[in-house]
Design brief:
Layout lengths: L2 E3 L1 H14 L4 H16 L9 H11 L9 E6 L2 E5 L5 H19 L1 E7 L8 H9 L2 E7 L23 E6 L5 E6 L6 H5 L11 E2 L9 H5 L3 E2 L5 H16 L22 E7 L6 H16 L15 H13 L1 E3 L1 H13 L9
Parallel strand pairs: 3-4
Antiparallel strand pairs: 1-11, 2-3, 4-10, 5-6, 5-10, 6-7, 8-9
Helix pairs in contact: 1-2
């Protein structure tokens, strides 16, 4: 039977598990809050279910739970952060803070992240930047060469799903937040759909034909880019900025040893300070009026109406903050197994 717990209970479960791996309390808390925030936002593919995959990274030998990111290159409007194969959330938060601070002085700042673990839901970073009055674009290359995304016109796994997020403030009560993978469907979503049918255009099977089920896609198949050549072009752009520009690599992911490639999320963050381009008050009024115009559009048949990108996640947080976060039997069993392997007791919080 699915398990439902309040957010604070999930935070405590995550913290205990990550500390048992050797993560200091502050790092464990950072990653725990990222995962729980994703579940609260309705993005369960990046929520507590990720504990099991992070444990896989740990057992593979390349994820260092105690590692802290460091700045290895820096100029007035740019920086490069090396995550030292630690949790990606810690590195991306550091990179975001640097990008926002530099944009205040220069108007625009770009910060790269390399040698990073999984960064979590990218939307959380642009939401924060928006709350600071900053427009931000955050992207991350994911996976090693060989998967899970096929390039447009191809039938083999070559690219990561390479998500892109962007956020912008829009007055006191609104913000724009987009966050999506360049694949037609997020890989994490397919893992939540065992045995289920999927629409044509989402993925290919091992033979290169359209996958009919999530299992066919995951077992030797490949995801397809959204919008055909358009999504493919964006996926390549993410590789250029997150992989090549940061020195992380696009043809081979450097791992802890020369023969062991590692996953994770090298990334790139661009921050824009509104005051360097226009008057913030005029910008906010313009955005509020624009959003009001969008919301006033007559709903299409069967639709509840137009919503601004980011509103569904905000509404989900309001609901889950009251009702709690629910995980499947399979996800809970994996979490219990990881906890047991490290001697973590969870009975008092579950």
């Amino acid at each position: 039977m699915p398990l439902t717990l309040q957010p604070e209970a999930w935070l405590e479960i995550c913290r205990r598990i990550f500390v048992s791996w050797g993560a200091p309390d502050d790092i464990a808390d950072c990653v725990a809050r990222s995962l729980v925030s994703s579940d609260l936002s309705g993005v369960s593919s990046h929520g507590v279910m990720r504990i099991a995959s992070y444990h896989g990274f740990l057992r593979a030998g390349w994820l260092n739970p105690a590692a802290r990111p460091e700045v290895v290159r820096e100029a007035d409007g740019s920086a490069l952060v090396d995550a030292n194969w630690g949790f990606g959330q810690l590195a991306f938060w550091k990179a975001l803070e640097i990008a926002i601070a530099k944009s205040r002085a220069t108007g625009a700042a770009g910060v790269g992240v390399r040698h990073s673990g999984h960064a979590g839901r990218l939307g959380e970073y642009v939401e924060h930047a928006s709350g600071q009055g900053t427009i931000a674009i955050v992207m991350a290359s994911n996976g090693q060469p060989g998967g899970p995304l096929a390039p447009f016109g191809g039938a083999e796994r070559v690219l990561g799903t390479n998500p892109i997020a962007a956020g912008a403030p829009a007055g006191e009560a609104s913000q724009f937040v987009m966050d999506f993978a360049t694949s037609a469907v997020a890989a994490g979503r397919l893992h939540l759909m065992p045995g289920q049918e999927i629409p044509e255009g989402w993925a290919l099977n091992a033979a290169g034909d359209p996958a009919r089920t999530a299992d066919e896609a995951l077992n030797g198949g490949a995801l397809l880019p959204f919008g055909g050549h358009k999504g493919y072009g964006l996926a390549v752009l993410v590789e250029l900025l997150s992989g090549a520009l940061t020195g992380n690599g696009v043809t081979r992911r450097p791992g802890p040893t020369p023969t062991e490639g590692a996953g994770g999320n090298p990334g790139f963050i661009l921050a824009l300070d509104i005051a360097h381009f226009t008057e913030p008050e005029a910008y906010a009024a313009e955005m509020e009026a624009f959003f009001d115009r969008l919301r006033a559009v007559r709903p299409a048949p069967g639709s509840a109406g137009v919503r601004i990108p980011g509103e569904p996640e905000a509404q989900a947080r309001a609901v889950h903050a009251r009702s709690g976060i629910t995980v499947s039997d399979a996800t809970w069993a994996k979490i219990l197994d990881v906890a047991a392997q490290h001697g973590v007791a969870l009975a008092d919080v579950s």
